[in-house]
Automatic annotation (TrEMBL):
UniProt keyword annotations, A-Z: ATP-binding, Nucleotide-binding
Single GO term (MF): ATP binding
UniProt name for this protein: ABC transporter ATP-binding protein
Pfam short name (any one): ABC_tran
Organism of derivation: Leifsonella bigeumensis
Length: 279
């Protein structure tokens, strides 16, 4: 498949199994929303996909060997494949040319200008001792413009608001020209206009062939702007597939313990997920 294929991966932190035998896919050229309650394992899964957290090789043997959760799985190795290759086997620089991770609340202690931070996204594409090229500068400029932060280019990142910093870190990831873009709650600090701009930006990247996977808490944004969803709960995938078919009121009720209704935005026709407490 020309996208992300995850098979039977687990992650253990301090002895606790946080991601438990996850299988999922994210097709190239689409936006896949990763949803689930607090603590479901969304951030952990994204970190594992990015190679920042090691996989648990596990005591259960290869996937499909008849261990727990193996029902119906053909035998084969656990792992993460992207565009047909083993993602984690890529050397660091090659991986950084392939994927970018935009972390949640990634603080920055370094006193750099916004332009300098975005320029860091070009490093994986530059030779070890090569200077920045006009092409690098143009991509960094365009990335900053696409998140509406051009006027902040000379500001110190440590002085930005949370939402401004989030947009700069997205710009850095865009400058990296990833084919796989992983984002951990990319809208959590953004005002509502910037949330819509960001989701539309992600849809545009997907239209250009990028594989986009974004953890989202806002189910209306997930329902309205993702092509596919992966629903995590307690470190396991409880549902996945095309958003319109998968993200149903019954599933939302089951996973989040609330009542859900799906309405239509009168202007755009996109779904709105209306939530109310149960009982
Ligand atoms: N370093 C750690 N040490 C111990 N437990 C951890 C660590 N990091 C994460 N966990 C636990 O792993 C589980 C999954 O956390 P994770 O941050 O991946 O969830 P999440 O779905 O992203 O949650 P949220 O929606 O709250 O951001 C949680 O129970 C969390 O407490």
């Amino acid at each position: 498949m020309n996208g992300l294929e995850v098979r039977g991966i687990s992650v253990r932190i301090d002895g606790t199994l946080i991601i438990d035998g996850v299988d999922c896919t994210a097709p190239a050229g689409t936006v896949t929303a990763l949803i689930g309650p607090n603590g479901a394992g969304k951030s952990t899964l994204l970190h594992a996909l990015a190679g920042v957290l090691p996989l648990d090789v596990g005591a259960d043997g290869p996937v499909g060997a008849g261990g727990p959760g193996d029902e119906g799985r053909p035998p084969g190795p656990a792992g993460i494949r992207f565009a047909g290759g083993d993602l984690l086997a890529l050397p660091r620089r090659a991986r950084a040319r392939t994927l970018a991770l935009v972390e949640q609340d990634a603080g920055t202690e370094l006193s750099l200008t916004v332009a300098e931070v975005v320029a860091l996204g070009r490093i994986p594409h530059q030779g070890y001792f090569a200077d920045e090229t006009d092409h690098d500068r143009e991509l960094a400029r365009a990335a900053l413009e696409s998140v509406g932060m051009t006027d902040f280019a000379d500001r110190d990142v440590t002085e930005l608001s949370g939402g401004e910093r989030q947009r700069v870190l997205l710009a850095r990831a865009l400058a990296q020209e990833p084919r796989l873009l992983l984002l951990d709650e990319p809208t959590n600090h953004l005002d509502i206009a910037a949330q819509l701009t960001t989701l539309r930006l992600l849809a545009g990247l997907a239209a250009d062939g990028v594989t986009v996977v974004a953890a989202l808490h806002d189910l209306t944004l997930a329902a309205g702007y993702s092509d596919n969803v992966i629903v995590l709960s307690h470190g396991r995938v409880v549902a996945s597939g095309p958003t319109a078919e998968t993200l149903t009121p019954a599933l939302i009720g089951e996973v989040y313990g609330v009542e859900a209704d799906i309405l239509r935005n009168p202007r755009t026709g996109r779904p709105i997920v209306a939530l109310s407490p149960r009982g």
